Write a sequence for this structure.
């Protein structure tokens, strides 16, 4: 098969090659005077410009390649507290195509209140019965008792007659991440370094190759971190591990080889791909700064916990697919997909199978693994990768510069509140974007389904565990929270469901003005908004009569609906002509009146007629729904009484 060049295609000369200027002229015609920056240029959480079009990247960009090209590992979590059930689920995962098991012991943040309750080799052996350790990769999710878990797994391997060099295990010890999640560190950093060095030496003496330590981005991501903040925290964690081990006499090259990364794959495809690529480039830079010859780090990726929803959880399948695709394209060495019901409790076999198959389809049918670094050379990906390298390095340096009570680096940044303050600002920004639906959550804040089908889980989420006793802790900090972006909306839906279970579903009457063509857009907007809070939005087929609105029919429909809250929905023209009269009529009928849209110059007249609130794009939907629920639930109780 011969290659083809443009010289072999002379007809191509008939087509001019457009440049950036021609593209911009065409875009300006479409924009018709609108601001290019506001319409087409986005910004990431770190302020990185997201351009609508990028030129081809230069050919000399650094390649963030994996150590070994090929398929990524399909990882599945083992987290059931009962050994027999954990074993059944683990074997089903392996038989179904997984080739890596993530062991989440009780207390691990990733276990979400569940986890392997293994206190002995016998307990762990029962949970992993039939698992052939020499044929699959094992990884341990970081937990507060990481050293104990690592040694327990090593004992089990040896009890089965296997040598350490015959298995592939990431022991996942991450005391920095455990400190961030739990709020405590039982020993001082020097003693911690000694314990880690002793544990690694003991494991290596038994033939285990590691990695032994994890630099885990999940605690930071779940606390609201931006892409650059997550990168900075992972780098700072890894460098802390290097320092702790070097202080115990371990050569830097061996300390470097003991570390793996875990990064979060989120629903933003471009930034997730760029983040994973940037992580490799940044770690190469750290290694060179240490005087080492750079080696690729093993990166495990997990789909984002904070993007999961409890409402319309089927949409989580789409989120997981986007995140998995992004992790594969970004160069993850192994990937875990959160089952779509994970936010509702302990996932059952079906949810786990779908999560596993998400990866298998992308591997076997989409063949994503067949190209090493498929984003290379793409102007957008290369630009975002470089921007995240710069931003991530700055966040890393900021953490490295912190100090507190003899501590330094990321541990000091946790101890003095620097990390918590920065993440709190980012959480507030994300919460505002979700509340205003600038960042919509499909199935929750947008396009909710009040009649959604229930899904099954093995067990509901346990009550929030009490924080551990910190009396004897060497270091105590404010633990990082673990949040999901949908939680404010879910709380509103839960409040509405309680009222519905008591006999009255909160409801709003959509008082439509004018013709169907005139009111459909705002009625659809209002229905979508109110149902995001669990409030049923009822309306008729319109009340138009000879081009106007039949107010008597409108009021009669309102009374029949039995709602307290009414929301006027119509076009700007119908508002100018009829909204005040309709509001007055509905007010006399006992309605609490709102209006869909910005009132503009009509606000004074509308308020005088009885309109109390206005709902519009860009408003704080969570606050609006809190007020709406207060009105509708109170009205429902009064009606029932």
């Amino acid at each position: 098969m011969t290659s083809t060049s443009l010289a072999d295609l002379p007809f191509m000369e008939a087509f001019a090659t457009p440049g950036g200027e021609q593209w911009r002229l065409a875009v300006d015609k479409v924009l018709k005077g609108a601001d290019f920056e506001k319409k087409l240029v986005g910004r990431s959480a770190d302020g990185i410009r997201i351009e609508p079009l990028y030129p081809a990247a230069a050919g000399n960009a650094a390649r963030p390649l994996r150590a070994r090209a090929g398929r990524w590992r399909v990882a599945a979590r083992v987290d059931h507290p009962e050994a027999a059930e954990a074993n059944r689920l683990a074997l089903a995962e392996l038989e179904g195509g997984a080739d890596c098991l993530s062991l989440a012991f009780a207390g691990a943040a990733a276990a979400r209140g569940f986890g392997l309750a293994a206190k002995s080799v016998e307990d762990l052996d029962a949970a992993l019965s039939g698992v052939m350790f020499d044929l699959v990769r094992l990884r341990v999710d970081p937990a507060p008792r990481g050293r104990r878990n690592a040694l327990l797994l090593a004992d089990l391997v040896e009890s089965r007659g296997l040598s350490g060099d015959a298995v592939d295990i990431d022991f996942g010890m991450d005391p920095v991440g455990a400190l961030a999640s739990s709020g405590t560190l039982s020993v001082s950093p020097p003693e911690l370094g000694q314990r880690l060095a002793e544990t690694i030496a003991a494991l290596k003496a038994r033939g285990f190759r590691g990695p032994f330590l994890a630099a885990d981005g999940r605690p930071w991501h779940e606390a609201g971190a931006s892409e650059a903040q997550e990168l900075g925290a992972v780098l700072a964690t890894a460098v802390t591990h290097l320092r702790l081990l070097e202080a115990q006499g371990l050569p830097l090259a061996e300390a470097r080889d003991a570390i793996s990364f875990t990064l979060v794959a989120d629903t933003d495809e471009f930034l997730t791909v760029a983040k994973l690529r940037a992580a490799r480039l940044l770690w190469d830079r750290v290694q060179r700064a240490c005087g080492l010859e750079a080696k690729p780090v093993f990166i495990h990726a997990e789909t984002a916990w904070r993007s999961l929803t409890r409402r319309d959880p089927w949409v989580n399948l789409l989120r997981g697919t986007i995140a998995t695709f992004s992790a594969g394209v970004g160069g993850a060495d192994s990937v875990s997909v959160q089952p779509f019901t994970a936010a509702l409790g302990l996932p059952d076999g079906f949810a786990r199978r779908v999560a596993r198959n998400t990866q298998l389809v992308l591997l076997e049918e989409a063949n994503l693994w067949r190209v090493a670094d498929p984003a290379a050379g793409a102007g957008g990906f290369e630009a975002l990768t470089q921007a995240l390298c710069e931003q991530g390095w700055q966040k890393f340096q900021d953490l490295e510069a912190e100090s507190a009570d003899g501590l330094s680096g990321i541990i000091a940044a946790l101890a003095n509140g620097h990390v918590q303050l920065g993440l709190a600002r980012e959480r507030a920004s994300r919460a505002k974007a979700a509340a205003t639906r600038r960042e919509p959550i499909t199935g929750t804040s947008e396009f909710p389904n009040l009649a959604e089908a229930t899904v099954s889980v093995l067990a509901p989420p346990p009550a929030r565990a009490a924080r551990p006793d910190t009396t004897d802790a060497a270091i105590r900090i404010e633990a990082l929270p673990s949040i999901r972006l949908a939680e404010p909306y879910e709380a509103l839906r839960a409040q509405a469901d309680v009222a519905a279970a008591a006999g009255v579903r909160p409801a709003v009457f959509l008082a439509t003005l004018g013709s169907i063509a005139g009111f459909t857009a705002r009625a659809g907007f209002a229905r979508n908004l109110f149902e995001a809070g669990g409030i049923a939005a009822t309306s008729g087929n319109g009340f138009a009569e000879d081009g106007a609105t039949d107010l008597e029919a409108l009021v009669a429909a309102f009374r029949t609906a039995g709602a307290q809250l009414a929301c006027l929905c119509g076009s700007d023209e119908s508002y100018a002509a009829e909204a005040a009269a309709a509001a007055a009529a509905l007010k006399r009928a006992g309605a609490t009146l709102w209006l869909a849209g910005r009132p503009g110059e009509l606000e004074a007249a509308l308020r005088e007629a009885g309109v109390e609130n206005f709902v519009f794009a860009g408003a704080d939907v969570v606050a609006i729904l809190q007020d709406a629920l207060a009105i509708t639930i109170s009205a429902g109780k009064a009606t029932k009484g």
Remarks:
- The domain at 74-432 is CATH 3.20.20.240 (TIM Barrel).
- The mean pLDDT is 93.
- The chain has two domains: 74-432, 489-640.
